[in-house]
TrEMBL record:
Name this protein carries in UniProt: ABC transporter ATP-binding protein
UniProt cross-references to PANTHER family, sorted A to Z: HIGH-AFFINITY BRANCHED-CHAIN AMINO ACID TRANSPORT ATP-BINDING PROTEIN LIVF
Record carries keyword Repeat: no
Residue ranges of domain ABC transporter in the record: 2-235
Keywords in alphabetical order: Amino-acid transport, ATP-binding, Nucleotide-binding, Transport
Keyword Nucleotide-binding among UniProt keywords: yes
Similarity annotation: Belongs to the ABC transporter superfamily.
């Protein structure tokens, strides 16, 4: 169980996160939604250790994560697909995925077994193994980014805006992968601008605004809460509206 209690954090003078409480139970998919600048990505950065929290705590089970370096958080089983592109375009798909196994690189057998398991789960990795990542489409790159995270068989997978910039077909592929990972027992915390998609994939929803959690509940309860209409006029997210 991941637990954030009363977390405050920021980048400069003021606090971006202003007392965030959040939990993710094993086997669940939690989706954080909220307007631009609400602090969604900042929550993920605090969990993965990229940003220190100023007050409050972050724990995985009995283990405190706040104050740990990102490499320690990774070693404890939390891995993140970041919001911006994260693959090395000049390296092959295989090399990019195997980088995800950096922590287990000395155990060649384990590395090979994990890579084979990832190829089985995401056949694209096997079929494009020798191609440069830079030659993949946006949707294919997203799959490979997720594949890389799976090399560590994470206890918790953090996904920041997995649908960002994808065409409908790629989106369906990535959504299908997230669903199948959850069916396989992977616990996920995702941030999604596409509210309908995100809450459709999730078991639990969290609505953030202005660095605070405004609503939490089952994904269905959050989706149907009348307050959502106030945040997302007409049931369509502000960003979706902007993008037309
Ligand atoms: N590296 C940074 N340095 C300074 N301020 C930052 C930095 N990253 C984010 N912020 C600020 O923190 C606030 C929250 O940003 P965050 O990226 O967490 O929002 P978000 O909810 O993920 O938004 P988006 O939907 O646009 O991705 C914003 O006001 C943003 O400008
Ligand atoms: Mg963000």
């Amino acid at each position: 169980m991941l637990t954030l209690e009363n977390v405050t954090a920021g980048y400069g003078g003021g606090d971006v996160l202003q007392g965030v409480d959040l939990t993710c139970a094993p086997g669940t998919v939690t989706c954080i939604v909220g307007p631009n600048g609400a602090g969604k990505s900042t929550v993920l950065k605090v969990i993965s250790g990229l940003l220190r929290c100023r007050t409050g705590s972050v724990s995985l089970g009995e283990t405190r994560l706040d104050g740990l370096d990102p490499s320690r958080v990774l070693a404890l089983g939390i891995t993140q697909v970041p919001q911006s592109q994260a693959l090395f375009p000049g390296m092959t798909v295989r090399e990019n995925v195997q980088l995800g196994g950096y922590l287990i690189r000395r155990d060649r057998k384990l590395l090979a077994a994990r890579y084979a398991a990832v190829c089985e789960r995401i056949p694209l990795v096997a079929s494009r193994a020798g191609d440069h990542a830079g030659n993949l489409s946006g949707g294919q790159r997203r799959m490979v980014e997720i594949a890389r995270c799976l090399m560590l068989e994470p206890k918790l997978l953090l996904l920041d805006e997995p649908s960002l910039g994808l065409d409908p077909q790629s989106l369906a592929g990535v959504a299908g992968l997230i669903r199948s990972l959850n069916e396989g027992g992977t616990t996920m915390l995702l941030v999604e601008q596409n509210v309908r998609l995100g809450l459709g994939l999730a078991t639990h929803g969290v609505v953030m605004e202005g660095g605070r959690v405004r609503l939490t509940g089952t994904a269905a309860a959050v989706r149907d809460n009348p307050e959502m209409a106030a945040l997302y006029l007409g049931g369509t997210s502000a960003k979706e509206t902007q993008r037309g």
